[in-house]
Amino acid sequence: MHLSFLWFAMETYLFFMLLGAVAGLSAGLLGVGGGVVMVPSLILGFSSQGFPPEVLTHMAVATSLAAMVVTAASSAFAHNKLGSVDWFAVRWMASGVLLGALVGVVGSLQLKGAWIQVAFGIFLMAVGLRVFIARNNVKGKLLPGPFGLAAAGSVIGAVSMVFGIGGGSMTVPLLMRYGLAPKQAMGSSAALGLPIAVLGGVLYALGGRGDQILPEFTLGYVYLPAFAGLVLLGIPFAKLGANVAHRLPERQLSGFLVAMQCLLGRYY
Length: 268
Description:
Helix 3 (53-81) packs parallel to helix 9 (224-245). The protein is built from 10 helices and 2 strands. It starts with a helix and ends with a helix. The longest helix is centred in the N-terminal third of the chain and has 29 residues, at 2-30. The protein has helices at residues 2-30, 35-48, 53-81, 87-108, 113-136, 146-163, 168-177, 182-207, 224-245, 250-267; strands at 218-219, 222-223. The protein is mainly α.
């Protein structure tokens, strides 16, 4: 019995490590933070571990955001080194993230996990379509001013907290619509994912205190064994993804983003 439990634990941790590699690669390659990959996969993993259904979706969202602190930092550093971050846009959008994050976490904790899953699937498919429209109909408008960017950051921050994503699904098409090249939009999105992830991880860790049905080894809603497995390979693969992104044609990059989000949306 002891050996079978140990084997199950090893398999589970290996799953988290491989998931971290995939999430890190997608964060670096597409600037989406990795949450669109991590959240549905963590829900499956936590369900197989027998975690209470009342909390497993919120645990997946919280753990995704916490792990994204590391992958987003690694991805943002790599993109910045390659000169693909528009810091004017990132700085002002990040200023609005705090308010949006507070609203998003409070709202998320009032929702049932099943509702979040359905809404996430619809959201991914809608944004996949939006990216497709953006890449084929770029308007070339000027970026909004500081107030407009901060307002956009608030909305992105709120939605990111509910779904456990880094906001790239919204940031990339928004910045592309205002004329940024896909590589620059993805690099800027990766940088914006860092404050989103930090706020999300902290708020969900605090918000889950005192919940009696949470399993062992949690910090609030953040499941620490999964967090450790995710970040182990997330860092090197995020750097790898950023380097690969700068070698691929921009149209191909945005096509990958559309395909990934539509496929994950259909999963839900």
